[in-house]
Amino acid sequence: MTGFSEFGDYDALGLGALVHKGEVSPTELLEEAIGRLNAVDPKLNAVPIRHDDFARQQIEAGLPKGPFCGVPFLLKDQTLLAGTQTSFGSRAYKGFVPDHSSTFVERCLNAGFTMFGKTATPEYSLDYTTEPVAYGPTCNPWNLGHSAGGSSGGAAAVVAARVLPLAHATDGGGSIRIPAACCGVFGLKPTRARTPQGPDRLEGWGSMSCAHALSLSVRDSAALLDVTQGPELGSPYGLPPPERPYLDEVGRDPGRLRIAFVDRHLDGSAIDEEIATATRTTASLLERLGHFVEEKAPPRLSADRSDVSRAIVYPEIAASLKRRSAELGRPLNTDDFETGTLAEMEIGNGMTALEYIAATQAMRQIGRDLALFFVDFDVLLTPTLCLPPLRLGQLEMKGRDLDAYYRIAGRYAPWTGMFNMSGQPSMSVPLAWSKDGLPLGMLFSGRFGDEATLFRLAAQLEQARPWRRKRPPVAAG
């Protein structure tokens, strides 16, 4: 079976348009994507679960005529697609095959995607790197000795390596934006409740978690949000619908935005000098594009972001593992879950409802702190990461010393999680590379509900400083 050798010249919308015009078939696109994955994944270890025949059966059964009709797609290994394995990056879910799909996946199926596998994630998506015991580490295509980020590290690696132009991802504390920065691709975290979380769990991590994607082009990200956004039955939150399709925002004049920028750590300390310089260079670019730019940090948050996050996440992990223990009919042990995950479970089991409520109230106050800052600014620019992509093994949660892990994580990625707490949209844009050839992402965050401004700005930056022409050493095609 032959593929479509020009596959890499198109983004996902472009591939879908070719299918609609009859210039290429879904089968040709799928076989090309499978061939590309086969060529690079032995080096990357980014897609541990394959179901190529499921995608072939989709094509045989007939695909919906959505904007992504016939476009190959990979889901993150924490998302349900009926009849296919999902492991959540854990040995405890070996052989787990759900009988239904998540709402987000149903919307992607209706858009016409063909789904041929699951991308790697750390166990339960808990890590800022993708190095699970269940499948081993995912490597960064820019340098195989470095992390692809986490928790959507597998998705970022395959998009960067040109296996696909677009792949599913999720973000509960930076899990879209951190791997986007590590791998030199575009990653937007939508506003809280913009995309569905059900039907089994209608919110994740106290509303901090959301689903979207990693992509090469801004317009693919916008178009995917168009087909997946909106409430589902039972949604605990509601958002006003966008003024117009997000795809229509791409290329629309953003106007003269008021942009604050910070080239330091959240605590005010200095960061890696190359990243600080890249942040200042980006601020200068924004000025040249006509925006008002001011060096201005948000006010000190009313609570410690890391403490609040853990007080919400640990009980959620404990509840999830309790359910899995009941399903297995036995206690859990280190043959099921990693030591760090079990340590988080133990802490979560010891926490009280009062502590959880206090944490959620503190999280809402953090949201208010940031909302007040965005009264005067449209966008905040910060580095996505305060260190270049770490080497494999530098940051992984396999031991019981969680404090040591979070000390490193806190220096590495202090900015992303605060916007999960506030619920604001936030995106990592690949605008710089280190002298060693590693990507350095820039983080842009906007007002609650205002993805439109971010898409307009991202498209302007994509035009001013194109990143798609940059290819990593490990790339297909």
UniProtKB/TrEMBL annotation:
- Fetch the InterPro entries from UniProt: Amidase, Amidase_CS, Amidase_dom, AS_sf
Answer whether the UniProt record assigns the keyword tRNA-binding to this protein: no
* GO function terms (MF aspect): hydrolase activity
Segments forming domain Amidase: 28-454
Family annotation (Pfam families) = Amidase
Per UniProt, the keywords (alphabetical) are: Hydrolase
- Which PROSITE patterns does this chain map to? AMIDASES
Family affiliation: Belongs to the amidase family.
Q: What is this protein called?
A: Indoleacetamide hydrolase
